[in-house]
């Protein structure tokens, strides 16, 4: 199809290749005096513009900026960069747009802009033609910014990596070219480019399970990948990576930002990196550093193609791809930050400025600047970018960082914002998955549930309620919890109090999560009561101090089997609540195998092994705790996907105006004795055990049984049916609901891992380490078994068993902090009374766990030797408990269980 004439693009900036071998170029700058397009070529090759360009030479009496005003097209040689810069004067402004037609253009062409105008920083005007600017619509990007005075529009110096100067001072006259990234043109006119693309999975919201991951972090240490694919888009597309994700059972992969990024000035001054990527440099270009070295060397087109190939591979494997996007602020930061694009093009138009002081920027993001979404052209820019990723890259949905900032008019949030209407009404975007982070740092910034159809939103109330119920209330010192039955039931039923805002808006709008990139991992939620962000270099002042986490008596890692058991079960309680609640569950990558960040809850600047997934456990010759958790989580995901009870968007129940549940034909509630809760029970904080029965006309019912107290407890399930347990959080510790007053210990664990035999590329070093681990574990197991045979008590064998655990699970001696915040070693308990309470709460499992938790010697321990275990010799077998006609089941302490109705 022929490209329409230039005037057809009068409202759309960008670079458009034309059939004459050139390109039409349009850029927006509403208040500039003059704009130039600059094309870069190597000086050892003939110029494409030799016939048209006037050569400029150094003139001590005239700056090159004064010279380029004289000629429509001119060129200069930059020997120190080995580049030729050809400068085209653009025509405009026409409704804020500037135009030029390039006689020649090619795929991979490097280019940018220079903009001249007033220099009046006190009034928010900062034009500086000495600064080489990116194309906001550029599809490719190359190069990085140097921490150099040239990158700043004001006069400054850099001493010891610290920028010294005033943003209100004189204009810098240092040319920034060579110190900043450049845009790269990509010719994607090929009409056959989407031939052979796989169909989009189009997973319905009601069947969606989201998996949030970082492209680099997920694959950087992946042992199944060859070195050149680790940490790359191609590594994520590798068949074994895809097979792992399929085995886990998730449906939609949510990627942390993959749009091109640049480290904030603060991080550059301190020599650190923005690992997460929430510092966008280009909204149309993918981040080059996540591409393979081969693709980076070939250029921006190859980098983009690797991204396209990754998305295709994920689609072929059945996964949706959701992008985390950051349109609330840019990498330029506050007024003291560098000038790489928007600040130099039109500071007043792109950024929100304080009403009382136009020289300062509004900041509702905590990142120094805020895009002005009251400007129609900023809204258009964001929509164009999203459409590009959806149409050209085939992205299936977007998660909007700090979404409230995108919906502020005159500083206040409104769900009627033009940007939200533009997303809703767009024929392409309106049919994708659109997820909002419903808060920002501005006035009245917490807006969970208020975005309306068709947006889903992260549900922080679900996160905090679930953490409080299973962590703070268990690990605390209060006689009662802080979470009522009413609150827990509301979250389990889809959070209708938050999301039943519009007719037709359903529970799937609630993105239920307990951990995400921003905060503790699931494992760290159960290991650390306090954040440990010292490595970030901000004196542990960054990151949230309110985490609703618990350490179960010891801050950090430990060898104590009782503490390990408590933590593992708590982690499964959190995961079980998330997966068994109505709404859309979202997992954090690595939570399924005990990934840890050593207590860092704001690891945005840690591009290292702290944040990269540790996959060593895959090659253990025995089944590690990581593998057991993976299997437990995977089975839970599969169970959820198999139940049509969750495959709808209605709420299970809603609340009356006085805060009580309306009667519902979808759900019934029972207390442990089988009675229905009375009004007082819904708000009684001591009511921590209940059964939730989900009713179905087309399939069998299920019961979600929550035992939130520190003892095994009998539950009278509905007597109109026979019930069988399908999943229990206590199974992570080898325990299972039973009858006749007993908890059943599972003796059927398969101890041998198949990964070492079947995962590709297990090199000799990995195999040797695995064999050494096996030998050490066997030795520790023999010591433990021998001690038990000689009559030594369970307590005496704990050290040997814990050593075996340490071999296979990377649980090491804890590091503790006393009241003076001094670091000490050993296993000192922060609060003896609290720890005693926790251990007493788990006395039903601790003795069995002290033996069964040894991953490498599970089969050598005879559970009948333990006097403390509830799995006695006369406990019913699995067949006996399934055949029992009684409906009284004993649930393990502090557990959540899925019981399924047995059809007659």
From TrEMBL:
Keywords: Glycosidase, Hydrolase. Residues 855-865 have a biased composition (Acidic residues). Residues 851-886 are annotated as: Disordered. GO terms for biological process: glycogen catabolic process. GO terms for molecular function: amylo-alpha-1,6-glucosidase activity; isoamylase activity. SUPFAM superfamilies: (Trans)glycosidases (SSF51445), E set domains (SSF81296), Glycosyl hydrolase domain (SSF51011). Pfam families: Alpha-amylase. The keyword Metal-binding does not apply. CDD domains: AmyAc_Glg_debranch, E_set_GDE_Isoamylase_N. Residues 212-640 form the Glycosyl hydrolase family 13 catalytic domain. Residues 866-879 have a biased composition (Low complexity). InterPro entries: GH (IPR017853), GH13_cat_dom (IPR006047), GlgX_Isoamylase_N_E_set (IPR044505), Glycogen_debranch_GlgX (IPR011837), Ig-like_fold (IPR013783), Ig_E-set (IPR014756). It comes from the Bacteria. Its EC number is 3.2.1.68. Belongs to the glycosyl hydrolase 13 family. PANTHER family: GLYCOGEN DEBRANCHING ENZYME. NCBIfam families: glgX_debranch. This is Glycogen operon protein glgX. It comes from Bifidobacterium saguini DSM 23967. The lineage of its organism: Bacteria, Bacillati, Actinomycetota, Actinomycetes, Bifidobacteriales.
């Amino acid at each position: 199809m022929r490209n329409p004439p230039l005037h057809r693009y009068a409202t759309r900036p960008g670079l458009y290749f034309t059939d004459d071998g050139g390109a039409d170029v349009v850029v927006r700058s509403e208040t500039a005096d003059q704009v130039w397009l600059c094309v870069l070529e190597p000086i050892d090759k003939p110029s494409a513009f030799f016939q048209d360009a006037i050569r400029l030479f150094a003139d001590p009496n005239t700056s090159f900026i004064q010279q380029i005003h004289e000629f429509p097209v001119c060129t200069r040689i930059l020997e120190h960069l080995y580049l030729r810069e050809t400068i085209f004067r653009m025509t405009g402004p026409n409704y804020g747009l500037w135009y030029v037609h390039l006689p020649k253009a090619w795929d991979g062409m490097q280019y940018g802009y220079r903009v001249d105008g007033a220099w009046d920083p006190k009034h928010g005007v900062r034009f500086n033609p000495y600064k080489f600017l990116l194309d906001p619509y550029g599809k490719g990007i190359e190069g990085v910014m140097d921490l150099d005075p040239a990158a700043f529009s004001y006069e400054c110096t850099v001493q010891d990596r610290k920028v010294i100067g005033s943003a209100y001072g004189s204009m810098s006259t240092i040319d920034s070219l060579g110190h900043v990234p450049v845009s790269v043109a990509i010719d994607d006119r090929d009409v056959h480019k989407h031939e052979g693309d796989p169909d989009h999975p189009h997973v319905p919201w009601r069947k969606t399970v989201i998996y949030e991951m970082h492209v680099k972090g997920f694959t950087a240490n992946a042992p199944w990948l060859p070195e050149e694919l680790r940490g790359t888009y191609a590594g994520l597309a590798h068949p074994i990576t895809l097979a792992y994700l399929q085995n886990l059972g998730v449906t939609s992969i949510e990627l942390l930002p993959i749009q091109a990024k640049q480290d904030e000035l603060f991080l550059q001054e301190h020599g650190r990196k923005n690992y997460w990527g929430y510092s966008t440099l280009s909204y149309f270009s993918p981040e080059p550093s996540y591409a393979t070295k081969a693709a980076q060397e070939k250029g921006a087109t190859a980098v983009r193609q690797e991204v396209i190939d990754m998305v295709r591979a994920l689609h072929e494997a059945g996964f949706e791809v959701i992008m985390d996007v950051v349109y609330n602020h840019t990498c330029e930061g506050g007024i003291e930050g560098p000038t790489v694009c928007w600040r130099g093009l039109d500071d007043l138009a792109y950024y929100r400025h304080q009403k009382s002081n136009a020289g300062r920027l509004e900041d509702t993001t905590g990142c120094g600047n805020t895009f002005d979404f009251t400007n129609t052209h900023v809204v258009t820019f964001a929509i164009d970018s999203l459409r590009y990723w959806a149409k050209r890259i085939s992205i299936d949905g977007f998660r909007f960082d700090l979404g409230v900032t995108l919906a502020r008019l005159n500083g206040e949030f409104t769900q009627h914002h033009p940007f939200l209407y533009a997303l809703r009404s767009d024929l392409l975007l309106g049919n994708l998955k659109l997820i909002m982070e419903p808060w920002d740092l501005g006035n009245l910034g917490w807006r969970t549930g208020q975005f309306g159809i068709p947006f889903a939103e992260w549900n922080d109330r679900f996160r905090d309620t679930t953490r409080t119920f299973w962590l703070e209330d268990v690990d605390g010192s209060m006689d009662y919890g802080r979470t009522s039955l009413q609150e827990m039931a509301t979250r389990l039923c889809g959070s209708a109090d938050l999301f039943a805002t519009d007719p037709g808006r359903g529970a799937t709008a609630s993105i239920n999560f307990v951990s995400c990139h921003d905060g503790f991992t699931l494992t760290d939620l159960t290991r650390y009561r306090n954040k440990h962000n010292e490595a970030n270099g901000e004196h542990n002042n960054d990151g949230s101090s309110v985490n609703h986490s618990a350490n179960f008596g010891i801050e950090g890692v430990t060898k104590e089997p009782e503490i390990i058991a408590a933590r593992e079960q708590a982690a499964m309680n959190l995961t079980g609540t998330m997966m068994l609640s109505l709404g859309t569950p979202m997992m954090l990558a690595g939570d399924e195998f005990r990934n840890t960040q050593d207590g860092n809850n704001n690891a945005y600047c840690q591009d290292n092994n702290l944040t990269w997934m540790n996959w060593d456990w895959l090659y253990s010759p025995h089944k590690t705790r990581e593998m057991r958790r993976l299997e437990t989580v995977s089975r839970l995901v599969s169970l959820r996907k198999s139940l049509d009870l969750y495959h709808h968007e209605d709420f299970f129940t809603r609340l009356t105006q006085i805060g009580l549940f309306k009667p519902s034909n979808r759900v019934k509630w029972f207390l442990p004795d089988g009675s229905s809760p009375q009004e007082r029970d819904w708000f009684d904080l001591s009511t921590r055990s209940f059964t939730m029965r989900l009713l179905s006309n087309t399939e069998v019912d299920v019961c979600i049984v929550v035992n939130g107290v520190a003892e095994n407890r009998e539950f009278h399930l509905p007597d109109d049916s026979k019930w069988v347990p399908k999943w229990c959080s206590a199974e992570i510790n080898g325990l299972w609901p039973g009858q006749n007053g007993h908890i059943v210990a599972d003796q059927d664990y398969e101890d041998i891992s198949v990964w070492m035999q079947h995962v590709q590329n297990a090199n000799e070093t990995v195999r040797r380490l695995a064999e050494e681990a096996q030998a050490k574990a066997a030795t520790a197991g023999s010591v433990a078994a021998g001690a038990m045979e000689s009559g030594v008590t369970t307590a005496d064998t704990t050290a040997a068993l814990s050593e075996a655990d340490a071999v296979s699970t990377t649980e090491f001696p804890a590091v503790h902090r006393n009241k003076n915040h001094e670091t000490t070693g050993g296993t000192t308990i922060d609060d003896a009374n609290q720890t005693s309470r926790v251990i007493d709460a788990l006395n039903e499992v601790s003795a069995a766990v002290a033996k069964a938790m040894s991953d490498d010697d599970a089969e050598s321990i005879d559970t009948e030797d333990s006097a403390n275990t509830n799995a006695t010799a006369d406990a019913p077998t699995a067949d006996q408990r399934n055949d029992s006609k009684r409906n009284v089941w004993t649930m393990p302490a502090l557990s959540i269980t899925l019981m399924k109705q047995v059809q007659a």
